[in-house]
Amino acid sequence: MLPLALAIIEDDPEVRFLLSHYLDQQPGMRCVLVCESSEDFLAELSNSLPPDVVLLDLGLPGLSGLDTLPLIKERLPQAEVIVQTMFDDLDRIYLALSRGASGYLLKNLPLAEVQQAIRDVAAGGGTFSPAVARRVLNHFKPVAATHPNSLSAREQQVLEAIVDGLADKEIAQRLELRPETVRSYVKTVYRKLHVSGRIELLSRAARGLL
Question: What's the rounded Cα separation, in Å, for the pair 137 and 82?
Fold first, then answer.
């Protein structure tokens, strides 16, 4: 059986070296492409063996990991992509999964568990760091309706604009406010409604829990 072909896109040179050096030593694995940016990866892809699994850092300079995900899936539809990041907020998790990621790992995960995650997705499974899995599960647990009675009139207007799908700049235009003022209201709305961001707020709204 051919070894799993791996690609690593990671801008931190120490992390990049540790990952590539460790994974290259594992039985049945081979790093075929190791890049510091998405731009380098996309440019060098045609000169490399196609990877079976791509380890993708989200916090890349230039083209971000989230923006790179659909490009990888377009160029390599059969490849599995595992996101590696320090961020565990629901917005990034949701966007990564909706753009084709098969796994979401935090960077504090031991290398042995990264190796197992690669094998899991290559076998057709999905993989999450325990903290990420818990956050996702908690998001989908039944919750009591959160009535926005504690919101001021202006905060209620901001909430309605968010539910209408408006971005902060568009909310500022609708309500004739400065963008920084809108951002402050948005944070207050999230805090009062006990949500982590737009994705969770819109999910609750869709389930009638606001």
Answer: 19
Please give the radius of gyration of the chain, using alpha carbons only, rounded to the nearest integer: 20
pLDDT in tens, 79-107: 999 999 998 888 888 888 888 999 999 99
Global confidence as pTM: 0.68
- Domains in the chain: ranges and CATH: 4-139 (3.40.50.2300), 148-206 (1.10.10.10)
Tens digit of each residue's pLDDT (9 = 90 or more) over 104-124 = 999 988 999 999 999 999 988
Q: Element (H or E) spanning 116, and its range?
A: helix 111-122
* Pairwise CA distance, residues 196 & 187, whole Å: 9
Angstrom CA distances, 166 to 94, 181, 191, 203, stand at: 18, 15, 19, 15
Question: What six digits make up the tokens of 175?
Answer: 């309500």
Q: Could you list the beta-strand ranges (E) of 39-126.
A: 53-57, 80-85, 103-106
